Every structure is written in C-alpha cells, then in structure tokens.
Amino acid sequence: MSDLPNCPECGSAFTYDDGIQLVCPECGHEWSRDAGAEPAGDEAVVRDANGNPLADGDTVTVIKDLKVKGASAVVKVGTKVKNIRLVDGDHDIDCKIDGIGAMKLKSEFVKKV
Fold first, then answer.
1. What kind and span of H or E run contains 66?
2. Residue 32 phi/psi, 5° resolution?
3. Less crowded by CB within 10 Å, the N or C end of the chain?
4. What is the full per-residue pLDDT of the chain (113 aa) written as tens digits?
C-alpha cells in the first residue's frame, strides 16, 4: 500500500508523487507535501513580506507606498509602525500610524524590524 495521503479535493486514494508535489489523477488537483501540515496551535501564522513570523506588539516597516481609502493621504515607504495587533481577515494587521490614525494593513506590504 502507498503511504501517500488521499486527495484533499475528491478523496481519491490514487494520488501519486510528482517530484516536488502530489497529484490526483482523478480530479487533477495538485498540492505540496507539507500542505496538510498545520502550524502548532490553532491559529495561523501571519508572515511579513520576507516570510518572518509576526506577533502582537512587533514593530514593522512599510515596504510600498499605500493609498489610504477615503482620504488623500499616503503611507510612504519606510514608515515605521509600532505595536501592531494581529487580526483575522484580509487586512491582518491593526495599527495606528502617526499622522494618519488607526488603520488596517496587509502583512504582505510590511517587513519586520
């Protein structure tokens, strides 16, 4: 018997190894070997643009000019944001930025200091 996992999409037992990923011949779904590996604990790990894990209270730097919706303000590259809070959702960082106020950021546009 094969020690490969069943397909997460259709449940087929006929999965095969294709080098760097696993493939289901029935539905065509492809996934990485470690896709089923969950991080320790029940929360997902939020990572910055460089792949470093973020935590509540961290300080981050903005890596791209970000337009602020509903205002003519722009968060400039290099803006340092202190004491972030991680939240669920698309914009996973809740913070206060000097001169702008409270806002939410996506973790893909910041890097850990």
1. strand 66-67
2. -80, 160
3. N
4. 468 888 888 888 888 888 788 888 888 888 887 765 554 555 678 999 999 999 999 999 999 999 998 888 999 999 999 999 999 989 999 999 998 999 999 999 999 99
Extract long-range pairs of 2-11: CB within 8 Å, 24+ residues apart: 5/36, 8/35, 8/36
Q: How far apart are CA 30 and CA 93, in angstroms?
A: 31
Q: How far apart (Å, rounded) are the C-alpha atoms in residues 13 and 79?
A: 50
In this structure, the number of other CB atoms found within 10 A of the CB of residue 94 comes to 15
> Residues 41, 42, 48, 51: is their CA dihedral positive or negative?
positive
d(C-alpha 73, C-alpha 91), whole Å: 18
